[in-house]
Amino acid sequence: MLRDNHNRIINYLRLAVTDRCNLRCFYCMPEHGIDWLSRADLLSMGEMVRLCRILAGLGISKVRITGGEPFVRKDIIPLLTEISAIEGITEFTLTTNGVLTAPFVPQLKELGIRSVNLSLDTLDPARFFAITRRNEYDAVMHTFHELLAHGIAVKLNAVVMDGRNTQDILPMVALTRDLPVSVRFIEEMPFNGTGQIHPLTWNHVRIADTIRAAYPSLTKITDPAGATAAHYAIPGHRGNVGIIAAYSRSFCGTCNRIRITPEGMLKTCLYDNGVFSVRDLLRTGATDAQIATSIQDAIVHRAADGFEAERKSVHESMASIGG
Ligand code: SAM
Ligand code: SF4
Predict the structure, then answer these.
(1) CB 204 within 8 Å of CB 197
(2) Protein residue whose Cα sits closest to atom 8 of ligand 2
(3) 320 CB under 6 A from ligand 1?
(4) Total structural domains in the chain?
(5) Three-state secondary structure call for residue 267
(6) From CA 241, how far away is CA 49, in angstroms rounded?
(7) Beta pairing, strands 257-260 & 12-16
(8) Is the CB–ligand 2 distance for residue 98 below 6 Å?
């Protein structure tokens, strides 16, 4: 079992399998994209699978595949197949923008993926285009309906942005009345690949107040262990609402996760710069035991929270971090 220097058990890996993406969400990257990693710099499928095996041996039981957009990788299904078969990984999930995902939904179901996070910031096609700079709203909605039709739990992730989509908050909450979905509103973080920090005008408190004003029966419910979202129910609604204080960072005390970036850096906090290159270790002939020891060593030197980690950090694109 991995336990950090703040007595937190680490059992959750977020693995970013590429930095590339077919959308250009303005809160994540500039219109022209970012300096994409070369294929040689990306972890290969074999390296990712080996790393997941090592981490499963250390006590990682939950893995989330993210990116960049996972489905722009041509080998995504073989990669998911290999990782899903690793002993000890009992919860296997992914985050996707849904543009290319719909045709793969039956295979995700067969692989035992029971829950998918789908990013959707608005229910309006024009606003979708304004935010993502691509005309893919229909494709994303198709994925949404395919996931529901296949009985895969859906969490909708919406980044809340002043002047962009705050008018979508209540319509998105309304989705939870008839659909068994969790709609999660995320504070905007400064990872847009431009180095510019947008002032946070919609924090978790303002988001909750906005929802409560329309739904006075909004009730705080118990959060699953290690959850970053604060969960709320509305009596009579099939789904629920989550609010993620990603910038306010009120959840660091129970953080149970580590990240591997597309170029194989281990991050023990979303806000750190990466603590060491696992890829370089993998490529210089280190044994599984040596890699495991290096990871254990990093875990016992974790920052207490995202504020401490950020002191040394630069702000990059979320696509090169693995959101
Ligand atoms: N491309 C996939 C997607 O969009 O679902 C997976 C990767 S994306 C980086 C993962 C999550 O990070 C998405 O839900 C996205 O909304 C969120 N995200 C990206 N940039 C963000 C930012 N600056 N602040 C808050 N959330 C962000
Ligand atoms: Fe792509 Fe996801 Fe970033 Fe949007 S949030 S640009 S979909 S990686």
Answers:
(1) no
(2) 68
(3) no
(4) 1
(5) strand
(6) 34
(7) parallel
(8) no
Residue 15 near residue 262, CB atoms below 8 Å: no
Sheet strands (E) in the chain: 2-3, 9-10, 12-16, 62-66, 91-96, 115-119, 153-160, 182-187, 219-220, 229-233, 240-244, 257-260, 265-267, 276-277
State the CATH number of the domain containing residue 160: 3.20.20.70
- Mean pLDDT of the residues in the chain: 94
Q: How far apart are CA 111 and CA 161, in angstroms?
A: 35
Distance CA 208, CA 232 (A): 9
Give the Å distance between the CA of 271 and the centre of ligand 1.
14
> What percent of the chain clears pLDDT 70, i.e. is strictly above it?
98
User: Domain residues for 287?
Assistant: 2-321
* Cα three-residue angle 99-135-139, rounded to 5 degrees: 30
pTM tops 0.85, yes or no: yes
| Token pair for 176 | 């939870």
| 182 in contact with ligand 1, CB cutoff 6 A | no
pLDDT per residue as tens digits for the range 9-29: 999 999 999 999 999 999 999
